[in-house]
Amino acid sequence: MTEQGTLRVAVIGTGRMGADHVRRINDVISGARVTAVVDVDGERAKSVAGSVDDCTAFTDPAAAMASPDVDAVLIASPGPAHEETLLEAFRHDLPVLCEKPLTPDSASALRVLQAEQRLGHRRVQVGFMRRYDKEYMQLKQLLANGDLGRPLLLHCRHRNASVLPYFTDQMLINDSVVHEMDCTRWLLEQEITAVTVVRPTPSANAPEGLSDPQLVLFETDGGAVVDVEIFATCGFGYQVQAEAVCENGTARIGDAHGLMTNTAGGWGGEIAPDFVARFEEAYDREVQHWVDATRRGEVHGPSTWDGYAAAAVCEAGVRAQAEGRRVEVEMIERPALYG
Ligand SMILES: NC(=O)C1=CN([C@@H]2O[C@H](COP(=O)(O)OP(=O)(O)OC[C@H]3O[C@@H](n4cnc5c(N)ncnc54)[C@H](O)[C@@H]3O)[C@@H](O)[C@H]2O)C=CC1
Ligand SMILES: O=C1[C@@H](O)[C@H](O)[C@@H](O)[C@H](O)[C@H]1O
């Protein structure tokens, strides 16, 4: 850290999320600044570094992590690149905020989990930003205080206006529904034990080869059932909603009850265009939380264990999707480090 206690961060991957986090660290939150950016696309790294004072561009994550000007790492490269970067960060014992998914499959997530255990202390906060969203935090508090009784069902909707052409059926699970996997575990404080996927005839608006939408069902070890509609090409905007049905009542979030208008014989509100707009405050709170904890020498928030558990559920989900049957989740016991 600098003499003033400012955390010097390397942002690895400067695409949509990485560039947004660079802006957030430098212009929105306090206590940190970006001193290095890394992208395998060197021109992109240079262009992002050029927009920031005293920031060096790298194409190799290991070189940035070896720099004396780096105290912590924010990983925003694509999921398959996370394992190698996380292991390198552990070699330097650097604190990490790693965008979701921790890694795309449970074998690689387990390797990361084991490496962190060998280190002997937690180093990673995983970027499950919904845990920092105001409405999700309210729902979490309500369920935790017990007034509604035991949660029986959780109905979730996850709709994106559109996705990039390379999006696959597996990514509906690994890239999108992974958020509901984490929310389910966090909100209900239960593990997901089995996954089933059913699909209607795909929307005519879905790109060739993408079976969109899909309905993903989780069963939990606390006896709850969770249904997730994932509709990645709904066209009209970005909607993330959740309704908990409990023994003594229900609670619902994500209706965007902000500005409501009455015009031309109708009434209505706005729908966010994308996740960057819908979860802007949550991303800000998430990164501020990470910087504050790191400056105190602490690690909080979604852990490597949470990343591993989500990866294990994803793996069951991808198999359930491919094989058209209910698949049980296979997970190791929770290690003491994450107790
Ligand atoms: N929390 C959230 O709501 C969201 C999280 N994400 C996550 O953020 C991460 C990045 O996603 P996007 O920004 O949408 O992707 P993107 O494709 O826009 O950007 C990724 C960047 O990483 C670079 N890159 C690829 N391999 C690399 C490596 N080994 N080292 C350094 N840079 C590398 C690419 O050249 C590209 O510039 C993913 O893990 C994704 O799942 C993405 C969207 C929303
Ligand atoms: O993480 C995200 C994207 O990668 C994913 O593609 C979207 O479906 C999610 O809503 C967004 O939060």
From TrEMBL:
Residue ranges annotated for the Gfo/Idh/MocA-like oxidoreductase C-terminal domain, each copy included: 140-329
Keywords for the protein's UniProt record, in alphabetical order: NAD, Oxidoreductase
Residue stretches making up the Gfo/Idh/MocA-like oxidoreductase N-terminal domain: 7-128
Enzyme Commission designation: 1.1.1.18
Domain of life according to the entry: Bacteria
Signal peptide span: none
Catalysed transformations (reactions): myo-inositol + NAD(+) = scyllo-inosose + NADH + H(+)
InterPro entries (UniProt xref): Gfo-Idh-MocA_inositol_DH, Gfo/Idh/MocA-like_OxRdtase_C, Gfo/Idh/MocA-like_OxRdtase_N, MI/DCI_dehydrogenase, NAD(P)-bd_dom_sf
Residue ranges of coiled coil: none
One Pfam family per UniProt: GFO_IDH_MocA_C
Similarity comment: Belongs to the Gfo/Idh/MocA family.
Function, as annotated: Involved in the oxidation of myo-inositol (MI) to 2-keto-myo-inositol (2KMI or 2-inosose).
Quaternary structure (record): Homotetramer.
Protein name: Inositol 2-dehydrogenase
